[in-house]
# Entry
Amino acid sequence: MATLPQPLVSTHPRTALPALIASVAIVAAAFLPFAIGSDYLFSAILVPVLILSLAGLGLNILTGYAGQLSLGSAAFMAIGAFATYNINLRLPGFSLLLSIIAGGVIAAAFGVLFGLPSLRVKGFYLIASTLAAQFFVPWALSQYGWFTNGDASGVISAPPLTLAGYSLDSPAGRYAYTLAIVAVLTLLARNLIHSPTGRAWMAVRDMDLAAAAIGISPGRTKLLAFAVSSFLLGVAGALWAFTYLGTVEPAGFDLDRSFQVLFVIIIGGLGSIRGNFLGAAFITLLPIALSLAGAAIVGPVLDPALLENAQKVIFGALIIFFLVAEPDGLTRLLDRALRTRSSWIGRSKSRQ
Amino acid sequence: MQFFLEVLIGGALAGIMYALVAIGFVLIYRASGVFNFAQGSMILFAALTFVNLVERGVPFWLAFAATLLILIASAFLIERLVLRPLTNRSVITLFMATLGLSYIFEGLAQIAWGTQVHALDLGISDEPVAIAGLSLSSFDIAATAIAGGLVIVLALLTGRTSLGLSLRAVAADPLAALSIGIRLDRVTVIAWSLAGFVALVAGLMWGARSGVQFSLSLIVLKALPVLIIGGFTSIGGVIVAGILVGAGEKLAEIYLGAIIGNGIENWFAYAFALVFLMARPTGLFGQRSWARI
# Structure
């Protein structure tokens, strides 16, 4: 049975400090970018970071909290995106927001379906199920024209973004829309993780036999984790299509996207909520930083293929470095930095 | 009926090529419990290195030996820099480390040898051969013979030598193996070197069939269902599973694909694997594990 690193959340007594940081971060996210107000910042960095954080949160619930490894995150994102598109298109009275939520619910239903093998299969054998989803879903979406409304190219374009009659179709508007949804869902997920449901997930992750012995039903607990995880991934996929790209095609949700979400939670920290945001920021900023560094060192004539491969090597090495040096991810790193600071002002006792 | 048999046997033989890839997984999983996702990139790395040496005029066997040496050296580096610092860490952590490794192998291979497609001629022809009235590919038959030879060599090596005994001891109980004086680090390096050897053979066979190019590293996705059906710990199991998957895939493509649409070979093997897992949760021949509280 796969065992995972010790939970970060449950080993720490809750103190005022994380809550304070979280509120500061939310207030900063709500106001600071508007003060800077660059369209590039909104549409190329902040929106994808937020959406990847939400996707990371979804996968983290399944893998980091409930201990079920998944390599099919992008499949559930694709289901969310295409379900949202079709509900918005075909069902009158479904506003975009309502369609996104309904898309998440449909993704959750498929999450339960592909989670069913977890009742019988454990550990690495379970990746058969999520990989089946990963390869089956994009195939089905491009095979049957109904999903893309008969568009021959298989690429759908998103309708304009509006909320209660107001247009949010500017980069700042898209950011605000994404931020609101991600913030609300993160708060709900956080409460769920701190509830008996979340404790049951961790119990099943740490030892499912022992969890069963104290009266937790491992099957129901795992399926609930699949449902919640896929709901969040589905909403993230819908946002990816509607507020980030503006178009979406099945090929955009391939195995590489699933790995990207997996790297978000490895680098951010398994079993951590804050880690998803740190990991998503890291994953989004690293390629930008590497190309800037490459251009600065070698000049603009750098061969793009070489740059891409160099990025790959650096990326791979960084993943290994993180696993070796900081297995609990960026969130633990930040924790330690904060603890050092807070000990200066006499708070260290409450952190022990 | 003859067409059905040809598809069935052709598919089964093609499936041996998947098994060739999956054997590398089994070797590493048995010796160190690591689920090595980098096996596919090792195949790409090995094939690219070999084909570039040959194109630079290095004789076949010398190029083979040089590539093997590079793979053994990387086994040492991987043990020293990746696996040793991660001793006693969870299996998921180790799996993720091999994801990082696969990026490094892919990147390095293409930085060193470029990204163009190379043709590789091993002198094995790919022509239809008539056997017992059935038309089969001569290349597939050769691949089957090579895979069979590989399995026999590996079975003898892991079954009849003291090296094999220590490999199995480490797999059964690393702590007990340590306490009777087996060097864990050495066993790990040997297992990864053997997997490198298998990757080289698989890379040559796949490269000869479809050209040495980036897509070689994606064969890992074809090998995973084979591995899952066969069980992570059984070399014989993945051969049987390879035959099943290869035959099932070809039959499904022709008979099921006509009903639900083309291109199902991307996911069919995984759906197939799921059906098997429902009946046997640790594959056909995988070790059952006991759990207690």
Observations:
- The first strand of chain B starts at residue 128 and ends at 131.
- Residues 14-217 of chain B form one domain.
- DSSP finds eleven helices and two strands in chain B.
- Chain B touches chain A through 50 residues (CB under 8 Å).
